[in-house]
Write a structure and sequence with these properties.
Blueprint: E1 2-4, E2 11-13, E3 17-20, E4 23-26, H1 28-31, E5 36-40, E6 46-55, E7 60-64, E8 83-89, E9 95-110, E10 119-130, E11 138-141, E12 146-154, E13 174-181, H2 186-189
Antiparallel strand pairs: 1-2, 1-5, 3-4, 4-7, 5-6, 6-7, 8-9, 8-11, 9-10, 10-13, 11-12, 12-13
Length: about 200
């Protein structure tokens, strides 16, 4: 997925998955402030996307993509100790399934997308290697159901005591990552599914 519009000559990339008829979930920090969003499917074809839901507290976005023709993932839950995979693409566009383990579930106390307030986000701590561009990737459990959306990494190792990182995106080879519980997507899926403002750019 590619989003443009915040700054000249700057393009932000992220991942996403189909969670409804022609509906793709990703992270809000990739599409915030965008004027155009393009989604690339598994065959390498690009589709124009429209932002129809934006949650700046939980860092989630819902995109409508006409003609995607991809079966949606059923939604489920993940618990501590569960194994999952998230699909990302390499520089050549090849799909790669990366493994992840849920180390714990946690209610994450965090500011919103713009650093405002103190909000509780239903989240999961992961032992996973997350890289730049992986934000928005959906964790799929052994039961084939989507359970969470990757949104950030931490420079600290799994098992250390730390709050969720303020940064979003991915670090090179980071083993500790954070994801938002897919349950936080429910209000967006229940919405009117019409175009919404994408807000302002994230610094």
């Amino acid at each position: 997925m590619r989003a443009a519009g915040c700054r000249q000559a700057e393009e932000r990339t992220g991942s996403g998955s189909v969670v409804g008829d022609d509906l793709v979930v990703t992270v809000a920090h990739v599409v915030a402030g965008s004027t155009s969003v393009l989604v690339t499917d598994a065959d390498g074809d690009e589709h124009t996307a429209v932002v129809v839901g934006l949650d700046t507290v939980n860092d989630l976005a819902l995109l409508a993509v006409d003609g995607l023709d991809v079966a949606p993932l059923p939604l489920g839950t993940l618990a501590a100790g569960d194994h999952a995979v998230f699909v990302v693409h390499d520089a050549n566009g090849r799909a790669i399934a990366e493994p992840a383990t849920v180390t714990r579930r946690a209610d994450l106390s965090m500011a919103d997308l713009y650093g405002q307030g103190n909000h509780i986000r239903p989240g999961l701590e992961l032992d996973a290697s997350v890289s730049p561009g992986d934000s928005g990737a959906v964790l799929v459990g052994d039961d084939g159901r989507a359970g969470a959306v990757v949104f950030a990494t931490s420079r600290e190792t799994v098992g250390t005591e730390a709050s969720p990182p303020p940064e979003t995106g991915g670090g090179e080879g980071a083993r500790r990552a954070w994801a938002t519980d897919i349950a936080a997507l429910a209000p967006l899926l229940a919405g009117p599914l019409s175009p919404v403002p994408t807000g302002r750019c994230v610094d």
